[in-house]
Amino acid sequence: MKLVRTILILIFFTFIWRPIVAQNSAENPSQIYKNNELLTFSGLSFPAGVNGELFKNFKINYQFTEQNQFQLQHFYEKFGTFESTNTALLFKHHIAKNIYLFAGPEAVLGINQVNGSFESKQVNIFGGIGFEANTNLLLELGYKARTYNSTNTNFGNPAPTSVMLRASF
Fold first, then answer.
1. pLDDT tens, residue by residue, 73-83
2. Which burial class, exposed, middle or buried, applies to 64 when counting CB atoms under 10 A from its CB (0-12, 13-18, 19+)?
3. Which pTM was predicted?
4. Please, what is the end-to-end C-alpha distance for the chain in angstroms?
5. Cβ of 165: how many Cβ atoms within 10 Å?
6. CATH (domain of 34)
């Protein structure tokens, strides 16, 4: 439990300075990702909504060959009294200039802000194919298999195995 809290504190600390860097990246999209850089960052943070909703994400890419890279992704969402944090470590292999295969583990935590308890804990393994049209448009189609689930509610939980479609623009 102490390790989980430490990891969450580290992730939230990241979000304090991450929106500043993300704003700069959003203003200069050509600087978000360059093939000749070994380590790159990108991220995005939206202002709080009318009801206090928050949406934040960041990605760290480590490209170790021309075709292969590791990517750390983190997504944070807050709706009313519920917050969700999703972290994934992906291996990506480019089979063409804009097309790649990806696979990796993912950890998802659902937290009740009223009492601080975890409403859900999930560990998933997923993989698929992605298409990056440009730095501002990304489409991924994949398959997700849940390997661990500890959930107090079924609301918002996908099936143990599911097909996913993600878009980023």
1. 998 888 878 88
2. exposed
3. 0.65
4. 36
5. 9
6. 2.40.160
82-100 as b/e, with b when 16 or more CB fall inside 10 Å?
Answer: bbbbbbbebebebeeeeeb
> What pLDDT is recorded for position 12?
47
Three-state secondary structure of 86-102: EEEEEEEEECCCCEEEE
Split into its structural domains, the chain has a count of 1
The residue type at 93: H
DSSP string across the chain: -HHHHHHHHHHHHHHHHHHHHHHHHHH-GGGS--TT-SEEEEEEEPPP-TT--EEEEEEEEEE-SSSEEEEEEEEEEEETTEEEEEEEEEEEEESSSSEEEEEEEEEEEEEETTT--EEEEEEEEEEEEEEEEETTEEEEEEEEEEEEEEES--TTPPPSEEEEEEEE-
Question: Among all chains, which residue has been given the structure tokens 């380590």?
Answer: 39
Residue-range definition of the domain harbouring residue 40: 2-168
